[in-house]
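Q: I'm building a small set of examples for a reading group on sequence design. Run inverse folding on the following structure and report the sequence directly after it, with nothing in between.
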């Protein structure tokens, strides 16, 4: 399989007490507090009379720098290591900086990344096992290969939609009702009823994938070492065609969302160009509250629409956390650090640095006192109700092999935004729903070569 670099995460400045939120695939924002483009030299550093190994930590969470620094300080006081952090700038993922560090022969020991990226690293021989930090702790274990864990989750970020409750009389919920209501809103109100994203963007890719899941389309099957593309097989093909037909119909009541990312869809809500949009967690609320607080009370959360009679079986949730890079200079120290990070008393402070967008990686954490007492969360009980009611349905695009096995084809498809491109083929390229299914199936099989 060919190596793919993901375009996974950029920053978007979001408010709610001037909170700045790091988002999978977002664009926009100003420069973050960065440690610069170069990392500490590999090797030993002198600290007083003692010699300590430096752990190089690469992260895009500069907006959580204060709490991260506190966790690092606690770790250094208890371990014979120091931690040197390189924060990437807002508007850039960690991938570019990672490649710079590798090219300089100075790779990081720890990278903050997604579970899909962690599986790519493991596939390419770049990730070290972190089983002691994961197994037996209650944390999810999405990158488990031959009994070893290669990813330590720190948070989940579920997709979520938002609609204008002053324009929609109630949550439409089903494909059929969303279509009729979006038509009514578009025809009777001076606003588009819905947002349909398309193109090579993370927002479009997640949405189209989730629409297929809502219609019980099994895109893949098989174990991790033998993933098969099944979107065009028998019943899956017809269900996939129906999905694209619905997307095509909804696009009639939407602005042109070609090339739109998370921030663009949120802007459509904020500028009252659309009455509903699918996004990720409470990001729209955090963003809009800074610029249009008058709109916040008019927005309600919703799950993705489902065809009439279907249930909510799979719900895309980004999973982000720590990967230990096995070619760094302090692999063992890095293992200790990522274990310490998840067990730190400051861990929930880190997660709650962006409440409603970032959620704890465990149900225990979700039900914790820290979450219950968070002021932002208390102001939006409907979000927490939606998350708690659907917690068991949350899954990552990586976990789409048989029985939730890691699926590198799905990870690479997301890295190239294949499903977002399929919507572009449908809505801009003029392909029929049937032709679009054939196109996306061929693209997915191409990733298996």
């Amino acid at each position: 399989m060919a190596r793919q670099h993901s375009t996974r995460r950029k920053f978007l400045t979001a408010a709610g007490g001037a909170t700045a939120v790091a988002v999978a695939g977002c664009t926009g924002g100003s420069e973050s507090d960065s440690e610069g483009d170069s990392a500490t030299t590999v090797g030993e550093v002198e600290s007083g009379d003692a010699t300590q190994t430096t752990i190089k930590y690469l992260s895009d969470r500069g907006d959580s720098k204060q709490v991260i620094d506190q966790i690092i300080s606690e770790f250094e006081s208890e371990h014979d290591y120091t931690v040197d952090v390189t924060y990437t700038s807002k508007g850039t993922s960690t991938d570019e900086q990672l490649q710079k560090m590798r090219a300089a022969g100075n790779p990081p020991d720890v990278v903050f990344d997604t579970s899909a990226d962690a599986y790519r690293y493991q596939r390419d021989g770049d990730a070290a096992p972190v089983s002691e930090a994961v197994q037996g702790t209650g944390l999810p274990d999405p990158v488990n290969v031959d009994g070893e864990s290669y990813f330590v989750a720190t948070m989940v970020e579920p997709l979520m939609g938002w609609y204008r409750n002053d324009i929609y009389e109630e949550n439409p919920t089903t494909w059929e009702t969303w279509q009729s209501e979006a038509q009514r809103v578009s025809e009777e109100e001076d606003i588009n009823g819905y947002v349909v994203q398309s193109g090579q963007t993370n927002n479009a890719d997640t949405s189209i994938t989730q629409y297929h899941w809502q219609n019980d389309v099994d895109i893949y099957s098989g174990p991790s070492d033998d993933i098969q593309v099944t979107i065009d097989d028998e019943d899956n093909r017809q269900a996939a065609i129906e999905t694209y037909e619905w997307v095509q119909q909804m696009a009639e009541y939407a602005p042109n969302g070609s090339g739109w990312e998370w921030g663009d869809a949120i802007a459509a809500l904020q500028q009252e160009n659309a009455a509903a949009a699918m996004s990720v967690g409470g990001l729209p609320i955090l963003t809009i509250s800074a610029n249009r607080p008058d709109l916040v009370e008019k927005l309600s959360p919703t799950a993705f629409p489902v065809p009439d009679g279907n249930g909510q079986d799979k719900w895309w949730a980004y999973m982000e956390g720590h990967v230990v890079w096995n070619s760094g200079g302090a692999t063992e120290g890095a293992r200790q650090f990522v274990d310490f990070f998840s067990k730190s008393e400051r861990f929930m402070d880190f997660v709650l640095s962006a409440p409603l967008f970032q959620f704890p990686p465990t149900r225990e954490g979700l039900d914790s006192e820290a979450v219950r007492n968070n002021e932002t969360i208390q102001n939006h009980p409907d979000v927490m109700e939606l998350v708690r009611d659907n917690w068991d349905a949350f899954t990552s695009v990586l976990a789409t092999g048989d029985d939730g096995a890691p699926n590198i084809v799905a990870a690479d498809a997301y890295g190239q935004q294949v499903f977002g491109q399929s919507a572009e083929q449908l809505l801009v390229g003029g392909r029929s729903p049937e032709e679009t299914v054939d196109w996306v199936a061929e693209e997915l099989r191409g990733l298996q070569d």
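The chain has two domains: 2-155+318-372, 157-316+386-448.
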